[in-house]
Design a protein that fits this description.
Layout (H helix, E strand, L loop, with lengths): L18 H5 L39 H9 L4 E4 L4 E4 L12 H7 L2 H25 L82 H11 L3 H16 L22 H14 L10 H14 L15 H19 L2 H16 L17 H17 L5 H14 E2 L4 E2 L9 H14 L6 H11 L10 H14 L1 H17 L19 H17 L1 H4 L7 H4 L2
Antiparallel strand pairs: 1-2, 3-4
Helix pairs in contact: 6-17, 7-8, 7-9, 7-17, 9-10, 9-11, 10-11, 11-12, 11-13, 12-13, 13-14, 13-15, 15-16, 15-17
Length: 554
């Protein structure tokens, strides 16, 4: 059986290997026309694609010679009608373009490998490029005015898987002796250039923590922490503009106008003190704040009314006298505590000394100096004593003990509820005021009497169908000091109802109408506006008594 000879046969579709090439020592090249190739006419050249020659080498030809023969330029084949001849190409002639299969077939292996690797690199680059472009972190920031603290998104955690144990340091030992004023901050010490001086004289303590909330940075933090927002602050700002417009040319304010729904009684001392407390509650003093000129003018008038013994009374309705005295004393003690201006130190101390000197034997205050006591007037004087301690003024602790003794005589239900005078029966207003006094006198937050009393207060929320701003003012303070559920429940109503009832346009823009209020005839529009303003300043006016909020805000 005949077998095929690989040396005599080429790949399928190619012409057989020329015999002369195999037989001789020198390679001889012949060309045979493919049977399928078209025959050229006379005088025509046969293109290379028409006459394909397959070159092969015998086993006897060295490998290097075969490779060299393969890399030599192919000769140009010319043909006529009778024969096919071989002619070397001219130097000036350009090689004819070959078809793509022949170009690839005749390309060296290293070139094909290079092209393939470049294509692979391009493909991989196109696959990885979108991932590199999209490898970024997108942050979405929003601003909210919602109630309470704003919580951070916890989708990105920076806490290591195994945090290092932290030993909590002891910030305050348990065996320290009690102090008279836990709210007083250290004194402000001047920086001296003489570095050899190691000590300096310290006079009175600096402003206590309870008043620092009125400072700009602290105010914003406390608003967020306790539920204040842009609505409550806008109402305060509008109210202060109303007070500024209604200041008299001599610096005083009046209960009788010039505004609608004024009081039937005149009391410039009380009106001026209440207006100044509204400005100071928002952080404005005689030397700082947008309304400092208004405040300075008011204090020039009120301080000028003070007598040598610390009494502010200039005459008027008799039962207003000690209300006015207590309000003016609160205002001047706060001003000194906020500014440390020595021009007000002596006057504030005189006002406190006078208040203690006219305390009734029962332990409180009422309408006439040194005679009788009731919860209403006593509550204002307790606030005056507390303001003095915040400012670092001297306060006789005996006066506070006497107040506690008086409160026992008007207490009901074991001390959880309070009345106006002894055996008069308790009311929401007197209960709120009595509990606030107990808070300042040292009752603990979790005292069962305190808890029961505040529960009673919260069960009587703000209701403009029967307005009683005097009660609301004290209830707002006592629940704010309690914090927790009591404050959340009370504030939810207060921050909605009080701003919504404020006059927003016209001559009385910024004020609150006293129509229907229980004490409208006594205080009128100025009194009503002052009380509502104090409530909306409660977020920062005084820091809560039981809270450690100041540690978080340092």
């Amino acid at each position: 059986m005949a077998t095929s000879d690989p040396l005599r046969e080429g790949p399928p579709g190619h012409a057989p290997v020329p015999q002369a090439y195999i037989a001789g020592n020198q390679p001889q090249t012949t060309f045979e026309q493919q049977p399928s190739a078209p025959q050229p006419g006379p005088g025509m050249s046969l293109p290379p694609i028409a006459a394909q020659a397959t070159l092969s080498h015998s086993a006897g030809i060295p490998q290097g010679q075969a490779i060299g023969a393969a890399l030599r330029p192919l000769p140009v084949v010319l043909a006529d009608s009778s024969a096919t001849t071989l002619r070397e190409p001219d130097d000036d002639s350009e090689p004819e373009l070959q078809r793509t299969p022949d170009a690839l077939r005749n390309s060296p292996p290293w070139l094909i490998s290079l092209v393939l690797h470049l294509l692979m690199l391009i493909v991989f680059g196109l696959i990885l490029l979108p991932q590199l472009i999209n490898n970024q972190v997108e942050l979405d920031m929003t601003v909210s005015d919602d109630l309470g603290d704003q919580l951070l998104d916890d989708t990105i955690s920076l806490i290591p898987e195994e945090p290092t144990p932290v030993v909590t340091p002891i910030l305050t030992p348990d065996d320290l002796p009690p102090v008279d004023d836990p709210y007083a901050a250290p004194a402000k010490v001047d920086i001296l250039l003489n570095t050899t001086t190691l000590t300096s004289d310290m006079e009175v303590p600096n402003i206590g923590f309870a008043l620092t909330g009125r400072e700009k940075g602290m105010k914003q933090a406390l608003l967020a922490a306790y539920g204040g927002d842009s609505t409550t602050e806008a109402a305060v700002a509008l109210a202060l503009k109303w007070f500024a417009r209604n200041q008299r040319s001599d610096g005083h304010w009046s209960l009788k106008g010039p505004f609608a729904n004024a009081s039937n009684n005149e009391n410039q001392t009380a009106a001026t003190a209440m207006a100044l407390l509204a400005f100071q509650g928002a952080g404005h003093t005689h030397d700082a704040g947008q309304h400092k000129q208004i405040v300075a003018k008011g204090w020039k008038a009120l301080k000028g009314d003070m007598n040598a013994d610390g009494d502010f009374w200039k005459g008027g309705v008799g039962h207003h006298r000690l209300y006015s005295q207590a309000q003016a004393t609160i205002a001047i003690c706060e001003l000194y505590g906020m500014t440390k201006d020595d021009k007000f130190k002596d006057a504030a101390q005189k006002a406190i000394d006078y208040a203690i000197s006219i305390q009734d034997s029962l332990g409180g205050w009422r309408y006439t100096p040194g005679s009788d006591s009731d919860t209403s007037v006593t509550g204002w004087f307790v606030m005056a004593l507390q303001s003095a301690m915040m400012a670092g003024l001297e306060v006789d602790s005996t006066a506070l003990s006497n107040v506690a003794r008086f409160l026992d005589t008007v207490a009901a239900n074991g001390g959880s509820h309070y009345g106006y005078v002894s055996k008069s029966g308790y009311t929401p207003a007197m209960t709120a005021e009595g509990l606030l006094c107990r808070q300042y006198l040292g009752w603990q937050r979790d005292d069962q009497r305190m808890m029961a009393g505040v529960d009673f207060v919260v069960s009587n929320p703000i209701n403009f169908n029967a307005p009683n701003t005097y009660y609301w003012y004290y209830a707002t303070q006592v629940t704010h000091h309690m914090e927790g559920r009591h404050w959340t429940e009370w504030n939810a109503v207060m921050k909605r109802e009080i701003p919504s009832r404020q006059v927003k346009d016209g001559k009385e823009s910024g004020s609150w109408s006293p129509v229907g209020d229980r004490w409208a005839n006594h205080g009128g529009r100025l009194y009503m506006t002052a009380m509502c303003t104090y409530m909306l300043e409660v977020y920062y006016r005084h820091l809560p008594i039981y809270s450690q909020i100041y540690r978080a805000l340092r």
